[in-house]
Design brief:
- The protein has about 350 residues and is an alpha/beta fold.
- It has 13 helices and eleven strands.
- The protein has a six-stranded mixed beta sheet with strand order 3-2-1-4-5-6, with helices on both faces. The chain has a five-stranded antiparallel beta sheet with strand order 9-8-7-10-11.
- Helix 1 packs across helix 13 and helix 4 packs parallel to helix 6.
- The protein starts with 15 loop residues before the first strand and ends with a helix.
Length: about 350
């Protein structure tokens, strides 16, 4: 079984055991299972945590529950999953049947409403589980509600994997006490980097999108990337959590990269000031926060000078630090999975 006993010489008597449920078992969910497997002994030894996966759910497979734990071969062996009794029909029944302690919500983003991810997180917290999500829509559209529900239930609502694939929320939570965020700017979308670099090299817009799709970095609908929706959602997520804003994507003036011609992209690149899709947010008077997403030419000595390919970055201006830049160099699925794993350990620790 996924949950295995350890030797008598270990920390067996101090082990904490958790039933994990994965909702949205696609690329990210699969990467999380592989990382859990890779880190299993280290997590047992260093954190005294054991787990078993008791719930799997996706549009393809439906709601699968195995209270005794899925076999490792079922989790890692491809698309063949046997539907075990009980056979739940909705998220509430599934959480109960799987006896869920920690819910990982990794369904696809719906930028305008955040559903059904918000309903999934709400159900998980009401069930009594900690919830860890990679879905940005939950903190854009329901951050306050879900955070208050988590506090009321004595559980954690965690979301480090939602933006930039590097520690951002935990950086402020743990390392920057009493620091006030005044503004930030970021390059949050890898697809637009790849497309703009394809144009700069003489390729076409469609070739750039195809290259990004081959790398597996696009949203389900690449229009969400190139038209700026993904960056706008991430900007709202950061502003809502770190600046106390209440922004929605429709509140963010948004200009994607479709309007840039190949000629102007090539000329900007040749001058050493290439175009990037830059998101910004700033505190204004009266406690308001303004934000925008649009293509900008980045300076050769600025914080984004070395951002290329799939690299992402965010530059913060704080009342106690004039500039703090966090860079995720070529993040991948494992980077996203690590954000989920870190949140899990922080939630149950």
């Amino acid at each position: 079984m996924w949950l295995q006993s350890i030797s008598q010489g270990g920390r067996k008597s101090n082990m904490k055991n958790f039933n994990l449920c994965l909702l949205g078992y696609g690329n990210v969910g699969g990467a999380l299972v592989r990382l859990l497997r890779e880190k299993r002994e280290e997590v047992r030894r260093e954190f005294g945590v054991e787990w078993r996966v008791t719930g799997l759910a996706s549009r393809r497979m439906g709601w699968l529950a195995a209270p005794e734990g899925f076999e490792e071969s079922e989790l890692l062996g491809g698309p063949v999953f046997r539907r075990k009794p009980p056979r739940p029909e909705n998220v509430e029944e599934w959480l109960a049947a799987a006896r869920c302690d920690v819910l990982f919500e990794t369904t696809s983003l719906e930028p305008l409403t955040g559903e059904p991810a918000i309903s999934h997180v709400r159900a998980g917290l009401r069930h009594g589980a900690h919830v860890v999500t990679a879905n940005k829509g939950t903190i854009v559209h329901a951050y306050r509600e879900l955070s208050e529900l988590a506090r009321a239930r004595g559980r954690r609502f965690m979301f480090e994997a939602t933006v930039a694939d590097c520690p951002v929320f935990s950086l402020f939570r743990g390392s920057l006490p009493a620091a006030r965020l005044l503004s930030f700017k970021g390059i949050f979308n890898s697809t637009t980097n790849v497309v703009l670099e394809a144009l700069a090299a003489g390729g076409t817009f469609e070739e750039g999108v195809g290259r990004a799709q081959a790398l597996g970095i696009t949203e389900t609908d690449p229009a969400h990337d190139v038209d700026g929706w993904d960056s706008a959602v991430k900007t709202c997520a950061l502003a809502n959590v770190l600046m106390g804003a209440d922004l929605r994507p429709a509140d963010v003036p948004r200009e994607g990269i479709r309007g840039l011609s190949r000629e102007e992209v090539r000329a900007a690149h040749a001058e050493g000031r290439p175009f990037k899709l830059v998101a910004r947010a700033r505190r204004e008077g009266g406690g308001l926060v303004s934000a925008s997403v649009r293509p900008e030419r980045v300076e050769p000595r600025g914080p984004f000078a070395a951002v290329e390919g799939t690299t992402l970055a965010v530059d913060f201006e704080l009342d106690v630090l004039p500039g703090l830049t966090v860079v995720a160099r070529d993040p991948n699925l494992k980077s996203t999975a690590y954000g989920l794993l870190a949140d899990f350990l922080n939630a149950v620790g």
